[in-house]
Design a protein that fits this description.
The chain is of the alpha/beta class and about 425 residues long. About 25% of the residues lie in helices and about 15% in strands.
């Protein structure tokens, strides 16, 4: 079910302390706020949001990463999925932070539909090995393990399209995609950056070892900055209205990237997210900033919730998107003074919901039918009781892991190498 502005008078529901205590563990003995429907939104200009910061990680599903979260619609232990012989294999706790011994799970347009299996969501082992049905627990995640129970998590947040990394990252910038695979051809799709520029607003894209915006040629070279500039802008209180951050992508196959894509050591991703978190929450801009953490897509890891469909924009149709199927759920975390603490929002969102929030806040025209019809991510916030407190988390900085000697370069790693070379040739300021 999708929610619309004319229906925003729904109430929020809270579970009681006694109900939460029955869940058992110490972390589950807290009351868990559960948001069932959107609340009223203030006038955008009086919302208090002056800065939106988005950091998009790589390739993890909700059940795989956050299925342990109290109050969330997550499942981990106890599930069983058929392999290619029909034998049922159980989900299992991963004690390896890299998974070097396994293949990179399939997260392509075609592979996703094998995994989806007409809504059964049971095709994981017909497309992958047993790595795809492994999961991490709270104690494995130094950042998410502390931050997810403390802020607002969206457990009905889907990837924008059941397809690979590039299509979903195009969606995050453009609310549509002109490819359903990781093609490195140049794009001419209009983006949120065009809308911001036309309105006289400041937007910056921060990156590390390659620029995704290089896929638009040099068009966005002027708003592209190295990640070190983001840290400096936070420290000086000079964040623009909109900031997008990409993690270090290089050397995913070797296990030394910080983007959470297999076979990266996820402890490095946790350290990177904590660095972003510390920079934002210690910034003079913090009282007016919303930090959004999401993942581009599910990465071929199991999730038990069937993704819905959404309208198909024109570029998608030309690219071959035949069914409008959203991708499987991914982790999504909202950190801000307006974020309910210890809350799980059950409202349906996807990457275009981020764009919808930006467009709502600054009065921008939607890019496509997708962001026009998406639920505004602001529905998950509480504008009546802002709280500027932000705890400090004890997250080791690393580096962790090592080179996965047995891992073969994936199609995606090859695409990143091509994009890195393109970024260099176009003179993007790489770190």
């Amino acid at each position: 079910m999708r929610f619309h502005p004319e229906r925003v008078s729904r109430r929020y529901f809270l579970t009681g302390l006694a109900a939460a205590a029955s869940l058992g563990t110490l972390s589950r003995r807290r009351a868990i706020a559960q948001q069932s429907g959107p609340g009223s939104l203030p006038a955008p200009e009086s919302s208090g949001i002056d800065h939106v910061v988005l950091v998009m990680m790589e390739n993890r599903s909700f059940d795989h990463f956050l299925g342990w979260l109290p109050g969330a619609n997550g499942r981990q232990a106890g599930l069983r999925y058929p392999d290619f012989t029909g034998q049922l294999q159980p989900t299992h706790h991963l004690t390896d932070f890299q998974g070097c011994a396994f293949q990179d799970p399939d997260h392509s347009y075609q592979g996703g539909r094998i995994e989806y299996d007409n809504g059964k969501c049971d095709g994981w082992l017909r497309a992958n090995d047993v790595y795809s049905i492994g999961y991490y627990e709270q104690s494995d995640l130094a950042f998410f393990g502390a931050a997810a129970p403390g802020w607002t998590v969206c457990d009905n947040y889907f990837a924008a399209i059941m397809a690979a990394t590039y299509p979903n990252r195009f969606y995050q910038h453009a609310a549509q995609t002109d490819r359903i695979g990781n093609s490195s051809t140049q794009s001419v799709l209009p983006t949120i950056w065009d809308r911001l520029q036309a309105a006289g607003l400041a937007g910056k894209y921060y990156f590390n070892d390659l620029s995704f915006l290089a896929l638009w040629g040099t068009k966005y070279l002027g708003i592209s900055n190295p990640f070190t500039a983001f840290l400096a802008d936070c420290a000086s209180g000079n964040l623009p209205q909109v900031s997008f951050i990409d993690p270090p992508f290089e050397d995913e196959t070797s296990g030394t990237s910080k983007d959470d894509h297999p076979h990266a050591d996820i402890r490095n991703g946790e350290a990177f997210l904590n660095e972003v978190y510390r920079a934002v929450t210690s910034s003079p801009n913090w009282p007016h900033t919303l930090l959004i953490i999401n993942f581009d897509e599910w990465g071929g890891f199991f999730d038990h919730v069937p993704p819905p469909t959404a309208p198909i924009p024109p570029a998608d149709q030309l690219a071959g998107n035949q069914d409008g199927r959203l991708g499987f759920r991914t982790p999504a975390l909202l950190i801000s003074p307006w974020s309910r603490r210890g809350c799980v929002s059950h409202i349906q969102f996807d990457h275009t919901s981020v764009l919808k929030l930006i467009e709502w806040r600054w009065g921008l025209t939607p890019l496509t039918v997708r962001d026009a019809s998406a639920n505004n991510l602001a529905y998950a916030l509480d504008f009546e009781q802002p709280n500027n407190a932000a705890p400090i988390y004890n997250v080791p900085s690393g580096p962790f892991g090592g080179v996965c000697a047995s891992a073969l370069p994936s199609e995606e790693e090859s695409a990143w190498a091509t994009l890195q070379a393109l970024s260099r040739s176009l003179r993007f300021p790489l770190l």
